[in-house]
Structure formats: structure tokens, C-alpha cells
Amino acid sequence: MLQIINTERIGKNVLNAISHLKGTYGLFINSIKNISALKIAPVRMVAYRQLYFTGLEALSKVAIIGALIGIVIITQVTNIVGLNALLIGKILLWTVVRELGPLFAAIIIIARSCTAVASELGSMKVNREVDSLRIMGIDPLDYLIVPRIVGITVSVFILTFYFQIIAIAGGLALSSVLIDIPFLQHLRGIFSALSLFEIGISLLKSAVFGMIISTVACYHGFRVQLSITEIPQVTTIAVMQSLFLVFIFDGIITLISFL
Amino acid sequence: MIKLENITVENLSSVSFEIKESSVCKIITSSDYQKRIFLNTILALQKPAEGRVFLFGKDINSISEKESFEIFRKIGMVWREGGLISNLKVWENITLPIWYHMGKGAEDFEEMVLDIFKEMGKDISELSAYMKKLPGPLPVHEKRLIGMARAILMDPDLMIYDSLFEGLNFQMAERLVRLTTNFHSEKPGRSSVYISSDEQSLKDVKADIVLKHFGKGYTT
After folding, report:
1. From CA B156, how far away is CA B63, in angstroms rounded?
2. For residues B73, B77, B81 and B84, what is the CA-based torsion angle, rounded to 10 degrees?
3. With an 8 Å Cβ cutoff, are A136 and B43 in contact?
4. pLDDT tens readout for residues A188-225
């Protein structure tokens, strides 16, 4: 009889996922314990480089996507509620500040940096660069993992804020040119609906997403053993696991904060 | 400095020997694979099935990772492929361990690095551009020389040269024999280990201990 549900395979996948989650959690805890490694100048240099590649180099992409998302939301909302500035402001806050800002920034970083970090660390393992670091007396956790986690987390944090500003201000500015929406009136509506709590929650989300993406990417990159063919495999798993965890934690934080 | 007690791992079986302070040792393995297993074992990258490995008097497989990093700081390892970090430029690769461990800036070592490359026979006028390159496209023997400069800067108590002379022309090999011999005698107590699967490439090295053709029950 044809077996439609392969329970053995499902069980194996679940066990794998649990083992990866445990490994990722362990790596994160160890990295937090070793955070003082940032006092060492070459470690700080790696963190700055990560900040540059993940944060600075992504600014233009985030700006374009942010502005486009802003236009789409403002156009749709204006079509539904008319020119009610306060309501448009609230809807923009609900969508852009609470949800889309942290999520889109996280997705952009997953697409750009999660893949880059997982494959870079994987290649370093295959080329025995990690062994070479050990034999130089340099802890790979301190030199490779800690600065990447810090660099990516700070980048997601900053990019989220940047995305939100561009999506709201840029979206409103472009919409006011394209569909004759009163720019200042709507901006005032948004500011009147904005609270520190909203900003705090969105920045908390971005920090959590940054830690998730960076730790998952580092964990899977470090799982590579000897073969170069493992690199695309771990990169794919890192991307999927980051996406899952980001959405799960987004749901959890939203539930806890707005219920 | 290095002591192996009845090591059995993959194609090495019951190997025992000791390399003491101030020794120059040549190790000739039967294949590149055996050499890799041997190096992995003495550098704690691979745990032996049986036996114990002592580095500087400590059982390297029973101490914590942090303690092992302290021991590795005393070792200068020159890998056959260079062991360079691919996303760092040549200069950053050379100064990485000394900057990491001693916090000294690059300017403190310019003269020293210049002297090392002069002795290696490098054209000094091209050195500035050379230092800014990423190591990826460089030939493997160039990467090995960069790895050697990096190890020399750390002034280690134990130098391990993995296939140092392989693929080099006669003049270059001769120059490196002279350089490593001088470097060996610069620090009292320093030991140097040359390891290769190509016996011919080590013929000019004058060693106190020669180990070759590992087999079952090999002891020296």
C-alpha cells in the first residue's frame, strides 16, 4: 500500500530541527558569555566589517524597498479610508512600525547576510582556516562568531529604524507627488498616533531578529565539515530556519505586547 | 615539547616518540594523508583512538579548549597551503596573531616583516602592493611564505614546518633552509620540526632526530 505520510521521515526531520535549535541556542549562550572578546582589537575590526557589509551596504536596497512599500500601503489605505489623516497614520503605524519594518529589514538581511555568513564560515571550515585560527591560539568563537552576531544584530536594529522612516516619510512624499495626498497633514496624523511603546516594541523585535539571523547563520556555517557540497545545503537550511524563527518570534512578541 | 605515547589513529599504529627542547627534527611520512593524520593528531584536531599526546608537558586532549589555546600560542605552524584567512589581506594575515595576542599595531612590525621578506628573497619595491592583496589568487608556495612570516613574528618556542620546501626552486629552498636554521638558533630552547612526505625536499635540513616510515609499533 502506498504510504502517503512517511512518519519515519517526519520524525527524523523533527529531531533534526530540535537538534539544530539546541545547537543554535548553545552557540548564542556561549557567544553572550564571550562578548568581552570585543575588547580585542582584531575582533572589533571583524565586527566593524560585518556592520559595513550588513548595515551600510544594504542601506540603498532597504531605502528602495521601504519607499515602494510605503507608496503601496498609503495608496491602498487612501483608497479605502479616503483622506482621513489620523486613520491613515494609525494604519501606517500598525503595518509599517509594528510589523513590516522589523520583518522586511529581517528578510532583507536574511537574503543578503545570512546566506553570506553561512557560506563564508562554511568555506573557512572546508579550507581549514578555522583550524589555522585555533593553532594560532585564537578562539574561533571569539574571532568569527561573536563579532558577526554583534555586527548583524546592530545592523538589523539600525536598518529597521531606517526602513520605517523611509517607508513612512518617503512613501508619503512620493504618494503626495503621484496621487495628490497632503503630505504634512498625513505626517502630522502619523506623529499623533506614534508612541514610544510602538517604537520600543519594533526595536525589540529588530534586536531579537538580528540575534536569531546571525546565530542561525553562524551555527549552520560552522556545521560544515570537509566537503564543499555541504555549503549550499547548510546555507539553504540557515535561510529557512531564520525565516521560520523570525516569523515565530514576531508572532510571540506581537501577542505578548498587544494583547 | 612534543611527546606521543602509543598513539593509534587511522593509518598510524602504536607510535611513540619525544621531541625535546632545542631539537631539530625531520619527520618523513609515507604519504600526504599520513602526514595530515599525524599533524591533526599532534595539534589536537583529531583525537587518537588510543594513546596520549603531550604538548609542552600537557595532555592536549584532556585539557580545556582555553588551556589548549594558551599552548598553541607557543607554536608557530607553517601549513603547506599557508593556512591563511581568505578574507584578510596579506598584511592583515601576517599581523593577525601578534595583533590579537599582544595588541601591538601594524607599524611596530613593518621593519621586522621587511627583514623576513628580504631574507626570503622578495623584491622589496613590490612589497607594498603585495601586502594589500588577498591571498586567494597567490600560488601555494607564496601562501606558505606568508604563513611562515606570520609564525616567525610570534617568536614561538616550537616551529612546525609542513612541507615547507615542496614546489620551491633550488635557490629559494636553500634560502629558506638558511632562514629557518638561523631562526631556530635565535631563541634558546626553541625546537623545529620539519614534516613532509617528500624525503628529498628535506635533504638539506640538518636534524638531530629523523623519524620516517611509520608503521605498527613504531618507537624511537
Report:
1. 21
2. 20
3. no
4. 777 777 888 888 888 899 999 999 999 999 999 999 98
Using an 8 Å CB-CB cutoff, list chain B residues near A43: 100
Q: Does the pLDDT value for residue B217 go beyond 50? A: no
CA closest to A131 among chain B residues: B45
Mean pLDDT on A149-167: 93
In which band, very low, low, confident or very high, does the pLDDT at A168 lie, cut at 50, 70 and 90?
confident
Q: What ipTM does this complex have?
A: 0.90
- Tens of pLDDT, residues B78-95: 999 999 999 999 999 999
Provide the residue type at A132 as one letter: S
Domain locations in chain B as residue ranges: 20-33+73-212
Distance CA A9, CA A29 (A): 30
For residue A21 the three cell numbers come to 535549535
Q: Are B35 and B214 in contact (CB under 8 A)?
A: no
Q: Please tell me what DSSP assigns to residue B134.
A: -
CATH architecture of the domain covering B20-33+73-212? 3-Layer(aba) Sandwich (3.40)
Identify residues of A whose CB sits under 8 angstroms from chain B CBs. Answer: 40-43, 120, 123-124, 127-129, 131-139, 143
Q: Which residues does chain A have within 8 Å of residue B87's beta carbon, measured at their own beta carbons?
A: 120
